[in-house]
């Protein structure tokens, strides 16, 4: 297990970023004198030779798209190297462990992954078949490992250059983007969020010096912008600001973005001007919907009026607020979907949206906190394990049909790099058509006027 190539670490998709979850695990294993090989299949090819050499393969699956790609890679590895131990780790690994363990993988880890993964590799090396805490296998069930990790600065030497990943676009300028995390988990428990069933409202702060060391490493490799990928950067605002102040003092021209709840933007609004001064160019926030029933069922902790207020506060501070949306759920209605579109149109906020968010449909993975909520009997179907979600059908058939049409429009627009304003109005035309109304997209474009140019990443997918 200590020869080069015996341990193979694979990332499939981390939202267009250099894979943090490979770098962090690699640091833990290297400290223990292992020599893992890292491959990011989103930009590189995984060779048959690398697969044959591996005795242990760990595949990072922090999100749904990564899991879909990761399972395909695991199946390929199983065919080429039947004796290799394959472990999937990340939020979606443990939630879908029973399906994955059926035929494809040997183990799954959720929560804080570095310590149980190191213990698993050590056990395999010593031919010890005893259950490993935090590791779910065919013979030993285990919940998520929610214990504080002895955090180390990620090791990025083996990872592809930053030039091969998403850029920050500000006007005509393109900047190389680094990625890091200052916390793990989340103290909030939104019912649809995959973090909730794994962390259950807990979060861990990564030591500031570990985060700053990781930032220095990426700046030395050309990064001029940093994405903080925490589920919520302001779970610990004092910790976040401490890191940003040190970062800005050391790299005054470095910009950044972060994900922050609407609730926190209002609660800590006094911090927004300093965030701008420290280099914040945009904030991602999980708005999800403006329908009060949807927000209540998801336990989002904000209202439509508070979303409007958050946009005003961000604009006053000179920071672009980029919402993520979940507009297709059993509680959204055709009327409220159109109201959501109208909200962005009337406030001249369409440019803040990535069109893909107009198509997102609720996923309910095994273990989702939504399954424990009431009032779902009329729409919830059986588990579709192959697609990692429970099936559900909207009470209004028009909404399921609309979602499919919207998905096709935004996927085509993404592939063709089409104008986002035009995509928006094409979606609105579809929604109005479902009500028997018509909309001229070109007339709507003319009435909307000139588009704002906002800073954004060239990779627009957030799920």
UniProtKB/TrEMBL annotation:
Keyword Iron annotated: yes
Keywords: Iron, Iron-sulfur, Metal-binding, S-adenosyl-L-methionine
Example of a GO cellular component annotation carried by this entry: cytosol
Gene3D superfamilies: tm_1862 like domain
SMART domains xref list: Elp3
Cofactor requirement: [4Fe-4S] cluster
Highest taxon above the source species: Bacteria
Segments forming a coiled coil: none
Gene Ontology molecular functions: catalytic activity; iron-sulfur cluster binding; metal ion binding
Name listed for the protein in its UniProt record: Radical SAM protein
Organism: Tengunoibacter tsumagoiensis
High-level lineage: Bacteria, Bacillati, Chloroflexota, Ktedonobacteria, Ktedonobacterales
